[in-house]
Every structure is written in C-alpha cells, then in structure tokens.
Amino acid sequence: MKAMILAAGLGKRMRPLTDHCPKPLLPVAGKPLIVHHLERLKRSGIEEVVINVSYRAEQIMAALGDGSAHQLRIHWSQEASPLETGGGIQQALPLLGEAPFLLINGDVWCDYLPSAATLAEGDLAHLILVDNPNHHPGGDFALDRGRVTQTGESRLTYSGISVLRPDLVATEPPGAFALAPLLKRAMAEQRVSGEHYCGHWVDVGTPERLAELEQHLAQV
After folding, report:
1. Can you name the residues that pair with 192 across neighbouring β-strands?
2. CB contact at 8 A, 64 and 20
3. Whether 34 contacts 79, CB under 8 Å
4. What is the DSSP string of 9-64?
5. What is the SS3 assignment for 128?
6. pTM, two decimal places
7. Distances (CA, A) of 68 to 43, 47, 71, 74, 105
C-alpha cells in the first residue's frame, strides 16, 4: 500500500510560525513534523509516499528530496494553488495507482496507522476516529458497529487518517474541492467503515497545540 500525506495548506492558523516556514517543516521533538510521519510510515512497512505541496513547495521538496534519507521513495504532486483535500488527492491519483491507499493529514500527530486490510470490499473509505478534542467538542461523525454515519449518538472526531479507494474522488470534475462531502455521500450509501482509536492524537493546527505536543513528547 502507498501512502499520501496532505501538505499543501497555507498554515494560516500557525502564523506567525508559518510566515517563513511551511507547516510540515515546523520542528517538534527535534525534527520536522512531516519527518515523524515518514518514519512511522517506514516502520509500518510502507515504501512509497505521495506528498502534495503548494505553499513554499520548494522548501519542503528540498528538505525531503526523493525520500532516500528515510529509506522511502517520495513522489511529489505540486499544486500551483491549493486544490483542497479532494482535489489534491485527485491530482495525485496517477502517482497513487488504482489500489487503496493510506491518507494522512500532514498537520496531525497520531501513534497509529491502519492497514489496507481494514478497508472491506465494496467500501470506499475506512476512517480512524478519535475522542473529541476541547476545540471540537461536537465531533464529526458517529460510529455504529463499525459503520460511520453522519448522525447518531456518541459522536467522534475524524483524525485525518484513513484508508481510501481512488474511486472516491476519481470521477469528480478536476479542480479544487473538499473531501468531506464525498465521504458523507459514501456514508449515505453505507460504504464507509471506521474504528475508534483511543491513543494519543493531536490536531497540530495552532502554535499552542504544537507547544503542547512538544511538551508531551518530552515526557515519553
């Protein structure tokens, strides 16, 4: 299975830290945030990673190169302007191929990665859901016996980590579009599974949460 890291965002919530440094290269525990992802992917057995870039793309590409320093092969999907999650994935499909792939938001921290086996035949997506953080108390979706739905009790937050089939975005008109509406459409068709991960997860979206992650990692 290949993996894709979403790294094309502008990092507006991280300003002023991202005024001169793209968010994936912000350091935490002595190395860029995106390097933690690459190391975890390598440990899980993944050999090829697609990374989409836009804002300060040259800096990210120069820092990571072809991935050989991390015993990986990196393919770059460069966007002239950010294509949002869905459009970014769609543009990268020629690099990802036709098989299911692992998707990771570049601005999250998580100790867990799912395997390709979590995506059942006929499903379009398998989502990793986590407990609702303080900044998102209402959650995103509900989980009922392994199926993800838009409504229901015990709502959870989408972690930014999933296993997807290319079919989820392949037939959409090219350009910028979000992934969430496509996931919701697939949920309505009963084609999205999920699991609740209870370990450590952080949406590293602000300087304060980056500092909190730094403090956490200093203690483990």
Report:
1. 125
2. no
3. no
4. ---GGGTTTTSSS-GGG-EETTEEHHHHHHHHHHHTT--EEEEEE-TTHHHHHHHH
5. strand
6. 0.95
7. 14, 10, 5, 8, 22
Sign of the CA dihedral with 60 first, then 183, 125, and 13 last:
positive
Q: Which tokens sit at 210?
A: 């980056």
**How far is it, in rounded angstroms, from Cα 195 to Cα 208?**
28
Can you tell me which residue has the tokens 């579009």? 177
pLDDT in tens, 139-196: 999 999 999 999 988 899 999 999 999 999 999 999 999 999 999 999 999 999 999 9
Would you place residue 11 in the very low, low, confident or very high pLDDT band (cuts 50, 70, 90)? low
Comparing C-alpha atoms, which of 33, 35, 67 is closest to residue 50?
67
CA gap 64, 74 in Å, rounded: 8
Which pLDDT tens digit goes with each residue over 112-137?
A: 999 999 999 999 999 999 999 998 99
- The span from the CA of 110 to the CA of 103, in Å, is 13
Cβ partners under 8 Å of residue 118, min gap 6: 126, 163, 193, 195
Terminal alpha carbon distance of the chain = 30
